[in-house]
Queue: 3 jobs
Job 1
Amino acid sequence: MAEDISFIVKDRSFEKFGMMLILGTTGDAMDVKMNFFFTFWGLYLLKKKFKPKASGMPFPMKGMGGKIFSKRLAKFGMEDPWGMIKEAVENGNMKLYPCQMTMDLMGIKREEMWDFVEDPIGAAGFLELSENAKIVSL
Amino acid sequence: MIKTEKKLRKREKMADLTLNALGKKCPMPILMTKKELKKMSPGQTLELIVDDRGALKDVPALIHKTGDKILETKDDGEQITFMIQKA
């Protein structure tokens, strides 16, 4: 039986958001259980109102990357990324866990996040979840 | 009328369902195919048309996981057509 995969998301760039979106929804289609643990800056990706910026964009285009990429993704068929993520979560194969400690550290509240995000957990909780999983840091 | 249609279908081996994923990029072809497969009955066939080159590896990877079968793959350099059968 295939291993589960645990991803640690520590950045809030559009690129990391995209990786979470694509790996998570594809894992759901392939019935691979994927847990995403959001910590430090990664927590911003879980906020309903947050618009990630493309960190790799060259200087003159900085700040515009997120908008440009979002438009292109829509053209490719991904008009509603959070809708796709919600579906994968509802199917049971994708779980989004915020890290309690860094939520407190950075002053980010549960109410700011999407409601299909799991309750916050700590390091021990994450390690227990990941016992038989591959751990990947995004 | 119906008899001729049935003969045509048999001769051309038309699929029960066709999924046009042209212009859609990874992971959309995979997600769309999985959705269709969920609705299908065993034995039914799905013709999937894509132009995303990554699909050449992605679709077999999905089908390997779902346990269904790829009966045929046609690649004309621009479009790839998969004939998939639900197990």
Job 2
Amino acid sequence: MEAGAFVSLLGPSGCGKSTLLRIIAGLVPPSEGRVRRAGDARDADGGIGFVFQEPTLMPWATVRENVYLPLRLAGVARVAAAGRIDAMLGAVGLRGFETVYPRELSGGMRMRVSIARALVTEPQLLLLDEPFAALDEITRFKLNEDLLRLWQERRCTVVFVTHSVFESVFLSNRIVVMTPGPGRVAADVAIDLAYPRDAALRTDARYTERCRAVSRLLAEAR
Amino acid sequence: MSPAWREWIGRIAAPAAVGVLMLVLWEALVRAERIPPYILPGPVLVAETLWTDGPSLLGSLLVTLRITLAALAAAILLGGALAILFAQSRLLERCLFPYAVILQVTPIVSIAPLIIIWVNDTFLSLLVCAWIVAFFPIVANTTLGLNSADRNLVALFRLYRASGWQTLRLLRLPAALPFFLAGVRISGGLALIGAVVAEFVAGTGGAETGLASRILEAGYRLEIPRLFAALLLLSLTGIAIFAALSWLSQRLLAHWHESALPEEE
């Protein structure tokens, strides 16, 4: 995997995408084989950022405290972290919501907090496990665009698990198509659409054409 | 009718009306049937007795209350500590939990005499009895709470290489708080029951006697109105403890827990 790439793992439920992501994160030991990371991303400065399918926030803590968590666990003092937290909350569009509790936020905004938490350590590797699957389409589109912007600003490597062809084509420059039972890689395609990509791309013929191609690959793989 | 009015009637007025109706029926029955006060005193007579005997009963209430609160505090401290210990080691939990269960299921009435013999100090022996009754819900609930932190949050803490202490303090303890508080609310009532039962077994005697001794004493002397007054005081105390702990729980969870949220329209 190339540094700075945006790779999507695409496939139906049960093909092992999420498990693969957890193996990359080091949360689950692989049954065989090895994961090689340049250096060890976990030991690198920012470590790994992980975004779950659910926002997975601490309900008893404010937005600010939730975003502070990774820095706090790394031993960064509150005062020293304040500037980074503010900048991060601004970047995901949550300025003014610092002292709000997660239950007062909408699903999309909770996911923004979750993304801010994953990025606040400035990780070299960002892993996302179907983060927008539970959101409505309008919110999902908006978050797709914001995620691309955040990725381009930071230039980290992203692995994005999804079961949406449209989402994976819109976001990534490389798509790994996986099949279930037993989970294996069926295809590995590059998406040669230039960044920055914005909402206008969704109606672009080149976009729809690539979506059709990836859909065909997914259908053949089964 | 405005919603606020309907709310007020549903929550306060209607239950209160039922209570008043019961009291009126009770008084009417006692008067109509001419039931002697040593069998069943009417509510008016009970209220009068509570007024005249109030000061002396209040002294006894204070004794019972002191034992209850001390037992609750001990249950919170030791129960909480035990639960945290259990959360650190599954083996320890498996080894010790059955004995906590045994202590819980053995009727306190049957072990109270032993404890009263073993522990010389009256206050302390009653305290131990009340504690035995009160500590289990806190241990059981807090253990459950400590183990029910969100799996993905636990994974996240692992990803960021959090220490055991960090995970406990920042994740497991806050996640356990609602469970712990539910346990404390149950234990508050149980501590009062434990204190009263233990005093029943210990019998009267000593300079300071609690409400249980006063109830026994009133029973022996057929001073049934006073017995009712003491009983009423005991119930009110139990209700007050429960209300206070519920209020505390509501305050602590107000920002985030489902149980503390206002009802949806």
Job 3
Amino acid sequence: MSDIASHSHSNQEIVAMEAIQEKVNSIWSLRFARLIKDKAAITGALILLTLIIISYLSPLLTYIVGLDGSTTDLLKRFDPPSAEHWLGNDEAGRDVLFRLLEGGKTSLSIGILGALGCTLIGTLIGASAGYFRGQVDMILMRFTDFMISLPSLPLLIILAAIDLSKLGVSQSFINSGAAGYWRIIIIVTLLGWTGVARLVRASTMSLVEREFVLSARAQGASSFWILWKHILPNAISPVIVATTLAMGRIMLTESGLSFLGVGIQPPLTSWGSMLTNAQEMMVSNPELAIYPGAMIFLTVIAINFLGDGLQSAFDPRSDPR
Amino acid sequence: MPRSNTPILSTSELSVRFALRKTWLGNNQYLHAVQKVSIQLFEGETLAIVGESGSGKTSFARALIGLNAVWQGELKYQGQTIDPLQNQAFSELRRNVQMVFQDPFGSLDPRLSVQEIIAEPLQIHGTHSKALQKTRVADLLTQVGLPVEAANRYPHQFSGGQRQRIAIARALAPQPKVIIADEPLSALDVSIQSQVMNLMKSLQTTHGLSYILVSHDMAAVHHLADRVAVMYLGRVIESAPVDQLFESPAHPYTLALLQSVPKIGKGKRTVGGSLKGDQPSPINPPKGCTFHPRCPVAQEKCKLEVPIDRNLSTEHRIACHFPIQVVRSAGATV
Amino acid sequence: MTSYLLQRLFGAFLVLLIKSFVIFALIGLMPGDPIDLLANANPEATAQDISKLREIYGVDQPITSRYVAWLKGISEGDFGFSRISHRPVMEVVFPALGNTLILTASAFVLSTIIAIFLGTMAALKRGTWIERSINLFAFAGISVPGFWLGLLLIYIFAVKLGVLPAGGMPSPDGPYSAMAYFILPLVTLVIVEIGGPTRYARSAMLEVLHQDFIRTAHAKGLTSSRVLWVHAFRNAMIPVTTIVALGFGHLFSGATLIETIFGWRGMGRLIYEAIMGNDYNLALVCLMMTTALILVANFLADVAYTFLDPRISLVGEKKQ
């Protein structure tokens, strides 16, 4: 019974040292390595990054070149591309290229902010439901199901058409176009968080029973500690995928709403609002309708390639055990 | 081994139940996973809790560290009753009683480095500064036979046996007095099992630890334990010092468990005694002695009355109406 | 089983009630005095009627009592008047609903069938240019803004080629056949809807094809095509049903943008015009209807789903 170790201590150490890999390989570095190999995803990421950088640089370019997308010049209406205006001029004489850049800035930022908002709210709700279970879970999930079953586009149209002055918003804020901008972000977040919430809830529920969580609980760790240190970092990979894809979804939604006239309001411009009068212009100047839509298409398809690549790279089944 | 009179950890009629279905009107069905279990762990000793899966041994072990709520009965640490609502005493229990889990990968957070994993108890209890954590982790790694460089590697870069060593190091971090090991060897290769067993043995001697070993592996139990408690469907049906249990088991279930251990190498292979039927569901246990449907020597009384825990001899307790009174010569069983 | 269904029905009804209140309140935030407009839409209302309605629906009334009054009207079958078309709401809503269903139901059926076909193809021809093209096509479908695609198609087929009408509803004395008006919106809708299910079908089929039981079937000597259709297909259909059921709900409101582009007088376009034209009676009722229909569709999908997947048992039943 008292079978003291037949190996000496140093023998144990030698045995235990076997096969410890040389490099330090965290799970994230492995996933990143997988992602880099996905050509479609990297292409998508580069396209996206380029578009974001260029559109955010547009104020600088305006400063340098002296052109912008909002100065109207009725003498230049529908001018074809020229040395000064590389893509020509639109129905109000504005430079099309710069208008595309400025519109891009609006559309892209709405996509990013909306996606982040959805993630934030969705994570909060999903993690709470999955971690605290019981009544909390039931209430939150009923709420989530309720939100999912709402007809989204009609509801978005209504929300976008609300008279903000009735809510006490100042008229000058409304007139600056900023109110419309923030409204879109808010309503898109309000209706878009449900996917992330479900994902986070599912991840949380499966993680809560894992033994490393039990170990922390046995030490008396607070709920916050467990959520912050163990649950969220392990649950985050599908969330990253969902956030990326949400950006594309939101950009499509915003463009639709702006096209209908209830989204981005002048003086602000977005790719969608540039298409508002496109139907009338289809016969005479189709390119004015094609450019903004093509930009949306390009951006969203890049996002989807990136998101798909992220999903494959972050697939937990590819992680080492 | 010297024994003080007070057990370092003990339970008195401890019961754990889980709610199964929640309807609008309130919880209806319960699963009584642990029923009136009383055990005593003395300082420096190893108490093994054995049984098949479903016997409640894991639920019991988890109740000892506060992961499962105690429904009825008492848990005492160093003679003092622990009430989960009294934070002071409970947090002392949490520091001094640590657990090593079964699954060497599941028990280590794959996102964290070994340094962070081992230091986590220290961080939660707030006892060590960052610098102190580093030295402590390095020291612990050495104690479990791993190189110091392991600290900035990640769990997936280690083998099962190495991961279990990391888990042991983590359990040792807050300098506990009791370690509860829940099937620490089951997920390991047989050749690695003996290494880890020996590590546990030597750590026990070095630090004066007391172990509760939860296992269904009778060979490991024989190697490590001083006392054994056998559980079946939530109840302790026999407990005795290890040699007594292996040489003269008194409960038919214990006998069947021992006979099912395959013996390799010692020439003869004894025929394993197989139990009749499957283990009944713990939700609806049989009436009377819960073992009676599978017991080879069951009688009428067994179907009606629940056997009470009583002393067979000074250190041998049994819960059976008709315990086996067979004395076997040493060496014939294991 | 029935108690479960009844529970669900009751829950759905409750949800509908809550939603109707939320929408009612939102309408109240519309520009102008919406309840006022709502109540006074009937061109035949007399001054007395109007003042009586104002008593009930006026802005100074708390929102809850206005809502209750509207509910009472609904329960009596009085759905109010549509301001912009000067007709009772129901007369306007039903034809629009029919038009939408023609479009969305056809698109739904077509896109589901094609998606399953394409997805299966892509899974079978893994690694070939066929799979890559299908993938690309699917990605394009989910990325393209539907209304822009519609505009493009109009440009190509109506403006440049002149073979199809640019929009509008089939009319008996127009130069085009009834079908011609239907094609472009249908194609647009199908392209937009097909991407998601295609990818899903592809990955579901891929998963199933690699599972052990398929190899067992091969080993048993069954021919390839039989293996595919009998075993793989049935199992792959379970997750596909989920996504199809999800798309079900879009039947009623998913075509708003496309209807608007093509001038197709459906529900989506109607709701939009109602909101834009301050015709709140119409908007309210349309939304209620859409919501109710979505709930029914989801409910039916749930029921169908439980029948399809034998692994799922309804709450309260024990699987032995």
